[in-house]
Amino acid sequence: VNISHKELEKFWEMNKGWVEGYPLILQVGMVSPSKDQLTTLMALKALKRKYPKVKCFFAGYFDEKDGYYVLLRNYISSAGLKENVCFLGHVSPNFLKVFYRMVDLAVFPGKGQGSWLSPLEALVSGLPVTVSERLPCSKLVSKWMLTFNGAEDLALNIERIVGLHDWWRGKAKLAQQYILENLTWENYCEKVLKVISSLF
Fold it and tell me: Metal-binding: is it a keyword of this entry (predicted)?
């Protein structure tokens, strides 16, 4: 995987002050109400009691003047999470692949609006994930991973994954194998063609 020198510098800058043994969490997606970063921040506040140095990275475009982003920044300040959160902005696919290997898990609290591809991408990388029950892919993902409903559930799921991380990594590998064998674009196109052919 090729990533730029600038992107590597960004990663090391983000990790200043990180202490080994504390969870590194990732959420992928543009900063917006539909991706629901606020739920992740609320879970992070609860987690901080047990893991003071927990860190969450938000990978996705954001506008500093956007009302939702301002709301998130205000929550971060009031909850004392300034040292625990990093907004990366847009990152390249190559950088994201490297990131999947460096964090402990990915979280996806979106509200059902098409947020199905990113969790599968993370699983294909062998990364444990936990997804909202509101997401279309939650029923599929729940075969291997934990789903949640709200910030309290999310915080508990993160604790469970961190506590048995090797076990959940193994489950992610099973998901990876299933996805690569059954959810390729070629596989999808074949099934669509069969459905269309059956209509004529």
Answer: no
- Tell me how far apart the terminal alpha carbons of the chain are, to the nearest angstrom: 45
- What digits encode the pLDDT tens for the residues 20-60? 668 999 999 999 999 999 999 999 999 999 999 999 999 99
pLDDT of residue 136: 84
For the chain, give every domain's residue range: 5-198
Phi first, then psi, for residue 26 (nearest 5°) are -130, 135
Superfamily of domain 5-198, CATH level 4: Glycogen Phosphorylase B; (3.40.50.2000)
Q: Give the burial class of 58: count Cβ atoms within 10 A of its Cβ; 0-12 exposed, 13-18 middle, 19 or more buried.
A: buried
Residue 163 burial (CB count, 10 A): 9
Is pLDDT at 113 greater than 80 in this prediction? no
Q: Which long-range contacts (CB under 8 A, 24 or more apart) does 122-127 make?
A: 122/26, 122/28, 123/172, 123/175, 123/176, 123/179, 124/176, 124/179, 124/180, 125/97, 125/100, 125/101, 125/176, 126/100, 126/169, 126/172, 126/173, 126/176, 127/26, 127/100, 127/101, 127/103, 127/172
Residue linked to tokens 């956007």: 66
Nearest-CA neighbor of 109 among 154, 73, 72?
154
Place of tokens 């999808």: 188
